[in-house]
Amino acid sequence: MNIEHFWVFAVAALMLNLTPGNDMLYVAARSASQGTKAGIVSSLGIMFGCMVHIIAAVIGLSAIIAGSAVAFNIVKYLGAAYLIYIGVRSILNKKKSLGLKKNIKALSYRTIFFQGFATNVLNPKVALFFLAFLPQFINIDTGNTALQILFLGSWFDVGGTLVNIVVAVLFGRISIWLSQSPRFVQWQERITGAMLIGLGIKVALSKK
Q: Measured between alpha carbons, how far is residue 158 from residues 44, 99, 115, 203 in Å?
């Protein structure tokens, strides 16, 4: 399996997983309101929810590749445009706090797990993101495209879960400072935005 520019993918995946999104905010809110263990449980729910999107991406992208290499390239360039779009939005974002709701109702760990699962599975932006992000690193000339997509998606998911677990621990201890620190929030947005724009430009200028 020859995945194109894996180190670029690994760095980009890490930076994207460090960006505050709906999943991270859910973990942070649960951890801040109900403790670190609740945040970790919600992280695991999100991880399994993300696997649903990964499997869907494997099936969908594999079908596109099998149908036409041209169609796959169209999806790839549309994905690059989408990455540039959300990258620009991240850089221009003026948000200075995460706006956590710390006084949320305590739930059982089972409920927290399935709530985290549902939060991810029912978010259409996650599916759209995987369709835009993963094709940038697939090498259709070497075959095993389904395996490449599954590997990349799983790497992203596991990395994101580890980040969310760290978030759960941090917000269980220093939630007020992290959620209200303008530098923390803006740094995340700008770095991630630059990474996304860079990925989009890389694809646009690629000769392949």
A: 10, 26, 19, 25
Q: Is the pLDDT of residue 77 over 60?
A: yes
Model-level pTM greater than 0.70? yes
Please name which of 175, 177, 179, 168 lies closest in space to residue 36, comparing C-alpha atoms.
168
Distances (CA, A) of 79 to 15, 29, 38, 136, 191: 18, 31, 35, 8, 19
35 vs 156, which has greater pLDDT? 156
Q: Cα torsion for 26, 23, 170, 194, to the nearest 10°?
A: -140
How far is Cα 146 from Cα 134, in angstroms, rounded to an integer? 11
Single-letter amino acid, residue 101: K
CA distances from 136 to 1, 85, 145, 207 (A): 15, 15, 12, 13
pLDDT above 90 covers what percent of the chain? 19
CA–CA separation, 4 and 110 (whole Å): 39
Contact 50, 157 (CB under 8 A): yes
Cβ-based neighbours of 191, under 8 Å, separated by 6 or more: 15, 18
Q: Residue 96: its pLDDT value, please? A: 54
